[in-house]
Every structure is written in structure tokens, then in C-alpha cells.
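Example complex used in Figure S2.
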Amino acid sequence: MSLRRLAAVGVVLLLALGGVDYRSLAVPLLDRSAIAAEMAREPDRGIWWPDYPRFLQAVRERTGPGDVIAVVVPATRWDYGYAYAYYRASYFLAGRQVLPVTGRDDRFLPENLRAARYIAAWHRPLPPGAHVVLRAAGGALVERP
Amino acid sequence: MSVLVALMTLVAAGLPMALAVDRGMRGPALVGMAFLYGSGALYLIELLLALAGLPWSALLVTALLLLVAAAALLLARRGVEPRKDPSGAAADPAHKRAARFVDLLTLLVVISQGFVATVASPWSWDFWAIWGLKGRVFFEARTIDWRFLEGRWNDFAHPDYPLLLPLNYAHAALLGGIWDERWLGVYGLVFGVSLLLVVHGLLAEECGPLIGAVAALAASPFALSPWVGLADGPLLAFAGAALLFLRRGLLRDDPAALRHGALLLGLAAGCKNEGLALIVAAAVAIVLAERRRWRRVVSLWPAILLIAPWTMARTLHHLQGDTGGGIAQLPERLRHLPEIVRALATTLPYPLLWAAMMIGLLIAPRGARAGERFVLMAASLQLAFYVAVYLVTPFGVVWHIETSWPRIATHVAVPLVVAVIAMLAPLAAGSQTLVHAEARPDL
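Predicted assembly (588 residues):
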């Protein structure tokens, strides 16, 4: 066998076998409950788990298609938590119109609060006299008059 | 359960579509193509219904899918007689046995990846902020929610991205009557398996069952995308199959293969904007690789037809992308080229396999390398497009590379792996493949 032919065999074998993750072949035989729990938490790391997604689900069940909902959370800077909270709310509240109260430049957006029918406030103090229609998982859903 | 029903429906509907394009298609490649065509047809049906202002229902969408399948069946029955397998002699029984062993290993890889992909609901940011989000929004609206896509606060969801995957997700929800993302990770797996079946079928016909099996195993790390729930898996399935069929069409003067390639290119562009770039890359590669027969580029016209509806919709609704906004920074970026190259090199997935492919290219016989000109050029151009986007990205360039290159570098890896194996297999076996034995004089 020539050197070139040997090299060809080597390259083909390397391509065939070099990319297989042999550890993952055992995954079907393992108890996956721990990793399943870990991956279920993955979207909502840190302070958000488990209450924020539970709160959003409760808001979804209390509201209807087309409702306009502003999201208020402890994070008030876009790139330091608010963006995550807004995007996550957009997912859970699909079918509703979700509005942020903090812009990409970290500016407060009172016009979005005024435009909303509901305010989903999670771990935020509520103004006196707020009409709370739901309390769940550390948050409150306020219906604006 | 609704995901399973959706996937089975797509395969069943796609079978006659694949046969309508190529009545001679058989075996694993036919099954793979059935799913690809079924998911593509579903996307076009839901898109056209949305453009016509007609709401989706499980009944309406399924009925239209079956109608398209029935029309395809009629076309398939009127097509030309199947070609005989040009490889002629039956495969060596020892090679067949070895191929089954290799197939078993590939099956184990697929099963293990299936368990990984479905260990939980898709968890990545891009699923619930882009692909899954759109699927859910559109399911809730029973149509494409143009107001959502146009909303000034929803640009994070990349409203300009094509909608093949979200519309497939919405279809599963329509069938189940409820949005449930728990099993949507299966879609990526099935797209990957479809590509592996195409690889297996095409290479087995070309080089024998053992090489077909080896090529499928080699393609599996790239085809079975670890990016659960994202559109990279579907894109690389359509893109990989497209380039492989175009390769076959050009090497063998096979019009059916060219049809497959063009249709798959159009559907790749329905997955992500990178698919649009691939149409250009493939067209340029045909012109450069086929010099004397460059007019074969015209055979890509179905791809243009397939991208027309979404392209028009995007224009009508002013759905903007966010790439290229940093073109003014190009001179500055070029000064930091070593840093960019380092970021590309250190985040390249499976570096050992890419190194093996480079070595394979170097040691392959010259005639074989010339025969793979189209795939090599198309893949190189596509990767060059990606690097060009990085140079003008409005975002931090190293951040952009680190968060995307590990995904997108795999988009054209499968046809490259197949091309290298096709070049080396006869050298390794001490023989000459059918396709390169038939190589045209201009090679």
C-alpha cells in the first residue's frame, strides 16, 4: 500500500470516526432527570428561576388575545436584565401585545405604560390604589382604568 | 403526539413530490427528500394562505398539503421510466456487511442525539426569542402576524428572517390545537436524519454501500445540529442536500438532480438569510466550475421562484435586517484582521475534522479534485460571504463571531465531507469511482 493510499484511508477513517461523541452514545442509558431539570432552568438563570416564568404563565392565563401588557421588573437597564425579561414575556404572552418600559438606551418609556391595559409587575412595588387582578409567583397584574 | 403526526404527514405528503421531481428516485434518499419537500411545501402553503389573508386551520392546511401531494402523484405517474442503477455490478457482500455495521453506529449516534435534543423543551435564547416565538405568535393568530413583525419593539425577533421553521412549528400546534414546545426539538433531528439519508443514498449509488454508510457517519456530527430548536439544522439539511444534488447533476448531466438542487436551494433560502447567499454562491460556482457549460446556471430558476413570495412580503411590510450596518467600520476591521482570524480559528467547531478535510483535499488525485470543483467553490464562497458579513457587522466583531461562527461554519460542512470522501474513497480502495471514471474531458 502506497503512502498516499495509506493517508487516504487514514483521512476517511478520521472523518468517519473523529466526530462521534462517544460519551453521548451512553445518554439513552443514563438517568437524564438531572440534566432535564438543568436544561429546563436554562432560559431563566439566576434570580428569574423559577418564579418569573410562573408569573408570566399566570399573566397569560388571566389575559386574552390582543391585550396590551407592559412589563415592569427589577432590572431597569436594557443589557443588564431588562432585555431578557421583555423577550421572555414576549414568548409567554404570545398573542398579546407586550410593551417594554425601558428602551435600548435605558430610557424609561412612560408612553408604553400609558398605552397598556395591563401592567405585569414582578418584584416591583405597586402604586397606592392599583387595581390588582392577579397575584402570583412574586408578581402582580395591574389593570389600568 | 402532534409533533409526531405533523412529521409523518410531511413525509407522506412529500413522497409523491420527490417522485414528481425524479421518478427514478429510490431508497434512503427518497425518504430523506420526502420530509424535506413535505416541510417545504407546508411552509409555502401557510405563507401563501397568509399572503391571501386566509386564516390557517388544521383541516385547511392538511387538505391543501394533500392536494399538492395528489397533484405531485399525478405528475410522478406521467414521468419518465426510472433509470437503471449505473453502478452496474452488485456490491461485494463483505462491503454490504461492513456497511450495515457502520449504519448501526450512525443509528446509535442519531438515537443518542435524539435523547439529547429532547431532554427538555428547546432551551436556547434563539428558540424562545426568534424561532419558537414566531411559531407561537403565528399559531395564536392562525396566520403570519404582520403587525408583530412590523412592531418597533419586536426587532429582536429578526422580522426579516424567513419563516420555514416557525411555520412548521405552527403546523404542529395547529394539529394539536395547543402550543406545546416540549417536543419541538425533534424537528432538528429529523432534518438532520433527512440529510444523512440523502448522503447515504447518493454516495451508495456512486461508490457502493460501504462508502455511502461511511459518508453518512462522517456527516453526522455536522448534520445532527446541536442547536436545538434553531433554524440552522433545517438550513444545513436543505443546503447540504442542494449542493450534493447539484454536484450530481453537473457531474452526470442529470436534469432530475439539477431540479432537486434548485428546489432545495430555494427552500434553504426559506430557512435563513444565509440560504439566499447560498443561491448566489451556487450560481457563481456553476459559472466558474462549468466554464464551457456555464449556462447551466439557468437551471437554478426554481430557486428564484421559491424565494419570491417571502421576498415580496418582506419588501411590502418593510421588514429590515440588521447586518451590514457597520460598513463604515470596514477599514478599522481590516486593521484587526489577525484578531478576527484568531477568533474564527478558535471557535471553529470540530477543528480536527476540518483539518482532515484539508489534508484530504491535498492528497486527492488531481482529476478527482477537479471533479469536485463545484462543491469546493460553492462552499468556499458561502464561507467567504459569512466572513464578509463579520467585517461589516454593526455589532462587536469578536462577539458576533463567538456567538454565531460555531453554528454557521457547519452549514456547508456536509457537502465538503462528502466531496472529500468521494475523492479519497477510490484511492483508499485502489480503484476508480464511477463518477470520476465518467469525468468529462474538460476535467
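The mean pLDDT of chain B is 91. Chain B touches chain A through 53 residues (CB under 8 Å).
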